[in-house]
């Protein structure tokens, strides 16, 4: 009898030891977050807020700049977590990328997922894609937190699926000029809610003045834009000093939203050319800015 009790105690001790080791490993594993963007909701809500219309043809959206701003905001909110990637969900005829969607797909840390677009320009299959990705990532413990920018009630099942595997889902929304642009059942299910206002989106949405409008100033070459980025970086470094540089470097290749916007505005003034919606030139600008700073470190 004593031998049986001793054997049982020994097994309990081994089990406790294994559990402690497992908990220690879990504690050392960094948290991971991902951002899920329903582009249909984004275009409609941001267009209404900034340009006064939901018609995509009536305004330009600087997707690259906005994605960087969302990543920067997530870095602040999930301070002890690393980004897995940004998932960008949109609709397209026969699921063939448009030029704009292709540009987004080429961005670092961004995965474009396409549903279909019917004859009435309505997205089909996007909600199921979001649910599939959320559930799969949560099930495989690939993420601990999900930031979901959307508003459709059909996303409730995606939220529940991810939560069922232990992930926390944080709903991000866009300020509505009046009323509400997110379904109440969705608001009830998520772990937290956050709304971004007009000031957040204003730098990335611009109304088109007329169909086929082109700037009067010729389009600058990428190398010219890159040189301007380096020039602005030199000025930034002389004003801010090396301490600010040391704080900025760990975020490479992303710039904090405020720095990125200052860079864009100053570059447009020097170039006398709008870089809104010019993803390749925006990348060249940031490359020039980073190249100069890294060369000085």
Walkthrough of the structure:
The protein has 297 residues and is α/β, with parallel strands linked by helices. The protein has helices spanning 2-28, 39-51, 63-77, 99-105, 126-139, 156-164, 184-189, 198-201, 222-240, 242-248, 257-271, 279-296; strands at residues 31-38, 59-61, 81-92, 110-117, 123-124, 145-149, 168-174, 192-196, 205-207. It contains twelve helices and nine strands. A seven-stranded mixed sheet has the order 5-4-3-1-6-7-8, sandwiched between helices. The chain has a two-stranded antiparallel ribbon with strand order 2-9. α9 crosses α12 (279-296). It is globular. Residues 210-216 have low confidence and may be disordered.
Short summary of the structure?
By secondary structure, the protein is an alpha/beta fold.
Name the descriptors.
297 residues, alpha/beta, 7-stranded mixed β-sheet, two-stranded antiparallel ribbon, 12 helices, 9 strands, 52% helix
The overall pLDDT average reads 84
DSSP strand count: 9
Q: What does the radius of gyration come to?
A: 23 Å
Helix content: 40-55%
Low-confidence spans: 210-216
Terminal-residue CA separation: 71 Å
* Total of DSSP H or I helical runs spanning 4+ residues: 12
